[in-house]
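Duplicate of earlier report; Pentatricopeptide repeat-containing protein input re-posted below.
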Amino acid sequence: MLKKTSSDSYRLLTPVLSSRNRTAEIERITKLINDHPFPNNPIQPILTKHIPLSSLSPPLVSQVLGRLFAAHSNGLKALEFFNYSLKSSPPTPDSFEKTLHILSRMRYFDQAWSFISETRNTYPNLLTLKSMSILLCKVARFGSYEETLTAFARLEKEIFKKKFGVDEFNVLLRAFCTEREMKEARSVFEKLHYRFNPDVKTMNILLLGFKEAGDVTATELFYHEMVKRGFRPNSVTYGIRIDGFCKKRNFGEALRLFEEMDRGEIEPTLQILTTLIHGAGVARNKIKARQLFDEIPERGFAYDCGAYNAFMSALMRCRDVSGAMLVMKEMEEKGIEPDSVTFHSMFIGMMKCKEFGFDAVCELYYKMKGRCLVPKTPTVVMLMKLFCLNGEVNLGLDLWKYMLEKGYCPHGHALELLTTALCARRRANDAFECSRQTVERGRCVSEPVLRMLETSLSSTDELEKLEELKRKMQKLHSYLPPPGTQLLS
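Output:
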């Protein structure tokens, strides 16, 4: 047996260290951008001072923008970072798409259209179906039917400058279906399908839209229309229908479709098996969930985090939280890292099970922090509510500070919960500090938070703090898009 030398050990350790250093650098830059008092001071000098251009690589830029997106950072600050990164290297499609997504999600449509127009002139290769989908989906969400069609025409004539085909038509339909506007999606299909030659993907997009709208009857009717029009169903088609029946607790029909796939020699996917495992949980059928989970390697697939999450969720729906914890342990032993969904499901299962108390949830919370995993917004709000309702406001503050340390600014609902709990315990200064941190990161606080602060601070003769916060919000409002923002300026 060969003995490992110290240099061998170093070579094995180097990728780990490199990965840790990269993660630390991503967090540092994200925190630097989020912590920057916006819009009081320009951010470019800060970026120049603290982020050497030589340290910026395209993957690092993309990962930082991904963190800024997940942290719900202010879109203008993300745009400033993107522009700064251009001094180092050309942008990647991923970094461009993430910046566009951050801008359009915050309704900075003036800036989004300018951004995509400038990109058309400088880096036209970055204009993809995905970037088109990002912008159209947000226009469909915040605008009208007519504005969405106008945006589609503008993208064709002014931005992409080419005649659109079925792929672009599919993007337009997806925009309406994503927002569950099926009446509008159907209208667009009937109006334009003669111009564009629909394919099976077109029909699956519409089928998915009906399913996401929660109308299993409309889904099945459209499926039969799809077959009548001559389109052959594929695994995606079956996956959509199976998911629709699982969500409506009709697990028997979902299994029937799964068996129909086998008879029709349509290969199932790992996603379909994962959907069925989750569906078995909804039906409180633990035995079938286990059977489907065991089928994954038998059908030639490798277990992933999604499959484990579905099985754990199924066990918890059957009130077997202890079993779910053992599955989570097995998952970790196999080297599959738990994600935010894993912890969210475990938190819910523990909260609903009398066998596990508040202390068990706290233990899992510290385990999540120990892994440096940043929870998604629903988890943050859920934990904040749990901590505050159980009189553990210090744990709420701990969660708040943890999110800030990771470069995130927690959701406004989490702030409302924390502020209410702090003010109820006469800790108005802590509540004010959390609100100030939110505003300085480019996010406004709600009217209920302001009213609570006004009541609490007035009793301690510190209303000047509230006036300071209002002045910062007023300045911030001048940079935020107004409620009636034009989508197609």
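The mean pLDDT is 89.

Merging into the original ticket.
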